[in-house]
Design goal:
The structure holds 2 protein chains of 2 kinds.
Chain A: E1 10-13, H1 17-26, E2 30-37, E3 40-45, E4 56-61, E5 64-69, H2 86-89, E6 93-101, E7 107-111, E8 119-124, H3 126-139, H4 147-154, E9 156-161, H5 172-175, E10 187-191, E11 195-200, H6 203-211, E12 215-216, H7 219-234, H8 246-250, H9 257-264, H10 270-274, E13 281-287, E14 293-300, E15 310-311, E16 314-315, H11 320-339, H12 349-352, H13 360-367
Parallel strand pairs in A: 2-8, 8-9, 9-10
Antiparallel strand pairs in A: 1-11, 1-12, 2-3, 4-5, 6-7, 6-14, 10-11, 13-14, 15-16
Chain B: E1 13-22, E2 27-34, H1 37-42, E3 50-55, E4 59-64, E5 75-80, H2 84-90, E6 97-104, H3 110-113, E7 117-123, H4 127-139, E8 147-155, H5 162-169, E9 174-182, E10 190-191, E11 208-213, H6 216-228, E12 236-239, E13 255-256, E14 259-260, H7 261-264, E15 267-269, H8 270-277
Parallel strand pairs in B: 7-8, 7-11, 8-9, 9-10, 11-12
Antiparallel strand pairs in B: 1-2, 1-6, 2-5, 3-4, 3-6, 12-15, 13-14
């Protein structure tokens, strides 16, 4: 978010944060921001421009997520919550098409258009932006553009915030995806004691920034923000041993560690539900009670579920070992074949939200022990 | 490889059952025609590709197309009644309606087959994706060398299209080898493993193209045998099956390593698939 371009960064005083939200609301964006629900940070619609919560921190460790008070009372001292952008672009459940049947039995099919509001999401993280770029690569690639995803996606306005307080489960510095946002945002903020260094990453972001009439950020403020990002990267305690683990993992498909981790894994699918890059979805029909029509729905699915590998009467992946290995090798190895990079952006959600605290970085280390990256 | 036609990820086309035949107690064939005449006239596919068939109010299943691309009496699908959708499809009669999306995926390597011996090794209902290519070769017989059809079934009663195999066996330059693990009265073919028939197959490995379809264990053993006979790996193809729900490489169920079987397959060259096929559970 920091370039050498003069005057690209502005300064938004703390007391004026609400003017940014007000501007987005004035532009008819439904504004989503952090909110506390069931003890976790979730993205919910803000009902007022000054509705952003302050002073929250998210303490995370394997299988554990607790909100605590931030002694500095900052707006964005929490690392992340279980979801950020993914549900807004790739809806957890939506209708793809519907069919009507007349009395003679004839079928009439029609596509269902996605209904999506223009949404601004305030407080997305660098890892979430990297994950969104991967979801874009999957759902918007040439020749197979998904109309539902495309419609939601193009209506998003993304306000990214640099992470100053990474969680103990975070490892975005080692995947190259954070903690400072570098691309994919409309606006990016870095929170300092007295306000925010703000930069635009798109024309529509630039227009919003211009409309706020802010003074340029001083070189000292920009420097402080830059140093804050470097400190946040240095504070991360977890990491992956390399950016490309494809060969290391694909040459260890019968490693005893797969049995060991399978004995702990519950196959609950939490990791895939919170993973910002997982894209699997099931398609299922929901017939109307009157029997005259049916809707064809897609819903998020998980490769840990029993039906994921179902094939006419048997299951390709009947045991947890093969399901864990499918997820893990897809995410970290064969994702390279599909998208030219790993599918892990280092957000650490799969670690925090795993009910038995399986730590992806620990599994990678065990599986690739002795491998030179 | 034959170039896949444009993919259709929108809603299905309405289609009608024009003919239904029972092939075995659980296996049946539906011939379908798209209700929209223009869509039917424009419908093209390559052998080895598949359609998504939709049963009203229940859901979709991927089914290979078993008819010849130039046949005009309906788009044929041979189906085993095994799940919710296929058991429902089994109850349909001529005139009943379904939805059809497709065709999808990459079919058999028709271009490469020209002038060469064609060897097909299939197991169980695996013959359905391969039967379209058999029809394709037989209709254009002069373009190909020897045709070798090797089919294995668990039980003699599982062999469908028995008269067809008898008929094919009488054609010149065509060899039919059938085996059942368990025989039955009046079973004219081999009793035992289909692999026991491999040595009888007459073809020139240096100028053959081989295609396999069926259980993965059978295909692994077959590949070993064919490669040992001198067939180059690049001449060996297989058709794969995985759970498929979207058919356009989006829903993720059919991922086999980095490949989406629905889009990058279902037909693969052996070299593309062999590494992961050696491991159970991908």
């Amino acid at each position: 978010m920091f370039s050498s371009q003069p005057n690209h960064a502005r300064f938004l005083p703390l007391a004026q944060l609400h003017t940014l939200v007000a501007k987005l609301m004035q532009l008819a964006y439904q504004c989503l921001g952090p909110a506390v629900e069931n003890g976790a940070i979730v993205m919910r619609e803000l009902d007022a421009p000054d509705g952003l919560p302050r002073g929250l921190q998210a303490e995370q460790s394997p299988g554990r997520y607790r909100l605590t008070r931030d002694p500095l009372n900052r707006y964005f001292a929490w690392a992340n919550g279980p979801q950020a952008i993914k549900p807004q672009a790739f809806a957890p459940k939506e209708s793809l098409w519907r069919v009507e049947r007349d009395d003679a039995g004839a079928l009439q099919f029609a596509a269902v258009e996605a209904v999506a509001p223009a949404q601004a999401i305030i407080g997305v993280r660098a890892c979430d932006l990297a994950a969104l770029a991967l979801q874009d690569a999957h759902f918007l690639s040439a020749g197979r553009r998904d109309a539902h995803y495309a419609k939601r996606r193009e209506l998003l306005f993304l306000v990214a915030v640099q992470c100053a307080e990474p969680g103990a489960t975070c490892f975005c510095a080692s995947t190259g995806d954070g903690p400072t946002p570098t691309a994919g945002y409309d606006l990016a903020l870095a929170e300092l004691a007295e306000g925010f260094v703000a930069v635009a990453g798109s024309a529509k972001g630039g227009a919003v920034l211009d409309a706020l009439n802010l003074s340029p950020a001083t070189p000292q403020q920009i420097d402080a923000a830059r140093q804050q990002g470097q400190a946040a990267a240095a504070a991360q305690t977890r990491s992956l041993p390399g950016r490309n683990l494809r060969e290391a993992l694909m040459s260890r498909l019968e490693h005893p560690r797969w049995d060991e981790v399978a004995a702990r894994c519950l196959a609950c699918g939490n990791c895939t539900a919170v993973c910002p890059t997982c894209f699997c979805h099931a398609e299922a029909d929901e017939p109307a009670l009157d029997g005259q029509s049916s809707r064809h729905e897609r819903v998020w699915d998980s490769c840990f579920g029993e039906s994921h590998g179902y094939l006419h009467g048997f299951n390709v992946r009947s045991d947890i070992r093969s399901r864990y290995r499918q997820w893990f090798t897809h995410k970290l190895a064969t994702w390279h074949d599909q998208f030219g990079r790993s599918g892990c952006v280092g957000c650490g959600r799969c670690i925090a939200w795993c009910p038995v605290g399986i730590d992806l970085t620990e599994e990678v280390a065990a599986l690739t022990a002795g491998v030179q990256p | 490889m034959s170039a896949p036609p444009a993919m259709d990820s929108g809603p299905p086309h309405a289609a009608s059952v024009v003919a239904r035949s029972q092939e075995s107690p659980t296996i049946f064939t539906l011939k379908l025609r798209l209700d929209d005449a223009a869509a039917q006239a424009a419908y093209r596919f390559a052998p080895g590709q598949f359609n998504m068939l939709y049963l009203y109010g229940v859901g979709e299943v991927p089914i290979s197309i078993m008819t010849d691309p130039e046949a005009r009496d309906g788009i044929g699908h041979t189906i085993r009644a095994v799940g919710r959708v296929t058991r429902g499809l089994a109850a349909l009669q001529p005139g009943d309606r379904v939805g059809l999306r497709g065709p999808f995926g990459r079919g058999w390597p028709l271009q490469e087959m020209g002038g060469r011996d064609v060897v097909l090794v299939t197991g169980g209902l695996g013959c359905a994706p391969a039967v379209s290519v058999i029809h394709y070769v037989l209709r254009r017989r002069e373009r190909f060398g020897k045709l070798v059809i090797i089919q294995g079934v668990k039980h003699a009663d599982d062999l469908i299209w028995r008269e067809q195999y008898d008929r094919w066996a009488k054609l010149p330059d065509t060899q039919v080898l059938v085996a059942a693990d368990e025989g039955a009265a009046l079973w004219p073919w081999h009793v035992g493993r289909v692999t026991e028939l491999f040595d009888l197959a007459r073809f020139n490995p240096a100028r053959a193209v081989a295609m396999m379809c069926g259980p993965e264990g059978m295909m692994r053993v077959t590949a070993e045998h064919l490669l040992a006979r001198g067939l180059p790996e690049s001449s060996l193809y297989l058709s794969m099956e995985r759970n498929m729900q979207c058919a356009v490489g989006r829903c993720g169920h059919c991922q086999f390593g980095g490949a989406f079987v629905c889009r990058d397959g279902p037909v693969f060259n052996w070299g593309e698939a062999k590494t992961l096929l050696a491991h159970r559970g991908f």
